[in-house]
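Summary of Year 1 activities. Much of the first year was spent building the evaluation harness for sequence design. The harness presents a backbone, in tokenized form, and records the residue chosen at every position. We chose the following record to illustrate the format because it has been used consistently in internal testing since the harness was completed.
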């Protein structure tokens, strides 16, 4: 998709996500099998991403009702936002394809019927949501693996780590047991965080960074496993990213100790939609923040590959491609799209504040002038 094409089309050499994923072991091992198959043959997937529902305790600003039950509640109460790009509508509820938590879901029933056959060939199962730890099917899956192991299976789970301590503790103990008894091959936890402090909590409504950090500690200390931070690098991250980089260094020092093993990974994919959350809306002078953060990583980079407290060259390159995308954009980042995004930026965050009792200018003082620019654009559209 154009998420990767945008990066590949930038001047110079840039590695897109599809290049990284194409090198995954579960891909390499099946190349010969796929080459020798006929179009009529059936094959169980080796990699499956699975959502049991949209039940979620967060309503992140760039998310949508399809992936968050709290977003459904908000739109039902307040209606749609006044946007040219409608990501937040709940019209999908009307076509009969959506099942609420209180309804019997035939797709989930069909999955469990498929599971005994699927698990024989599946190599990577990624559980997403909503919030997986709010769905009983997630724990049902782990309990079934305890009873009927899949020693070649790697499980990846996305979690906001904002759920109750008891849920995180239960997950941690179950993961440790499955790994200690070789009932699964690996378990990777991915958690989302886009900045730190009140800025992060503003972007991801429902987040409490103290709760998040406590739950992170519970998982890391109980399981002894790694955690990867999924950083959705968006328009509000740009000027407030340094505190998160500093937090990552702090956590690496706390949990890695003298080991060369890296237990705190992070990735920085750029947000491509909705337009009013794109980094490309910002005036070019905001690039100084990305430049400074890149230099911060460069000044603290792991040159000799044995200091797990520092940053890696790989992490530097991931943020560098975001910086290049900010400055150079791509053919889809047109002046019309930027103007549309700025118009929606003002309309969205004005209403976002009203619905959530928040204050954009107090939370993001470095964006005060930019918000005024967006207000002018909004008034021009409306006029």
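For this record, the design step produced the sequence shown next.
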């Amino acid at each position: 998709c154009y998420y990767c094409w945008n990066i590949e089309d930038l001047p110079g050499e840039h590695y897109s996500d599809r290049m990284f994923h194409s090198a995954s072991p579960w891909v390499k091992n099946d190349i010969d099998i796929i080459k020798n198959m006929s179009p009529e043959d059936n094959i169980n997937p080796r990699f499956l991403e699975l959502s049991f529902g949209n039940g979620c305790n967060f309503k992140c600003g760039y998310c949508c009702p399809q992936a968050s039950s709290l977003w459904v509640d908000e739109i039902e109460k307040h209606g749609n936002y006044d946007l040219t790009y409608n990501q937040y509508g709940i019209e999908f509820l009307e076509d009969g394809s959506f099942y609420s938590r209180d309804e019997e879901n035939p797709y989930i029933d069909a999955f469990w019927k498929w599971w005994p056959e699927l698990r024989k060939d599946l190599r990577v199962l990624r559980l997403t949501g909503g919030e997986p730890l709010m769905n009983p099917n997630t724990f049902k899956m782990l309990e079934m693996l305890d009873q009927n192991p899949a020693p070649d299976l790697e499980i990846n789970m996305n979690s906001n780590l904002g759920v109750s301590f008891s849920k995180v503790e239960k997950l941690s103990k179950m993961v440790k047991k499955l790994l200690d008894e070789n009932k699964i091959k690996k378990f990777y936890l991915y958690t989302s965080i886009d900045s730190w402090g009140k800025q992060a909590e503003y972007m991801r409504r429902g987040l409490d960074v103290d709760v998040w950090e406590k739950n992170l500690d519970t998982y890391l200390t109980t399981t002894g496993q790694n955690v990867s931070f999924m950083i959705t690098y968006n328009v509000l991250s740009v000027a407030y990213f340094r505190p998160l980089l500093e937090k990552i260094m702090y956590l690496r020092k706390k949990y890695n100790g003298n080991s060369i093993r890296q237990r705190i990974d992070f990735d920085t994919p750029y947000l491509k939609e909705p337009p009013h959350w794109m980094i490309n809306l910002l005036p070019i002078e905001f690039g100084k923040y990305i430049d400074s953060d890149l230099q911060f990583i460069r000044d603290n980079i792991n040159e000799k590959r044995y200091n797990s407290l520092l940053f890696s060259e790989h992490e530097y390159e991931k943020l560098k491609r975001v910086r290049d995308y900010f400055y150079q954009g791509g053919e889809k980042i047109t002046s019309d799209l930027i103007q549309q995004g700025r118009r929606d930026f003002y309309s969205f965050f004005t209403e976002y504040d009203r619905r959530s009792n928040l204050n954009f200018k107090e939370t993001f003082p470095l964006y005060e002038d930019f918000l005024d620019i967006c207000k002018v654009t909004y008034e021009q559209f409306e006029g």
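The radius of gyration is 22 Å. Quantitative recovery figures across the full test set are reported in Table 2.
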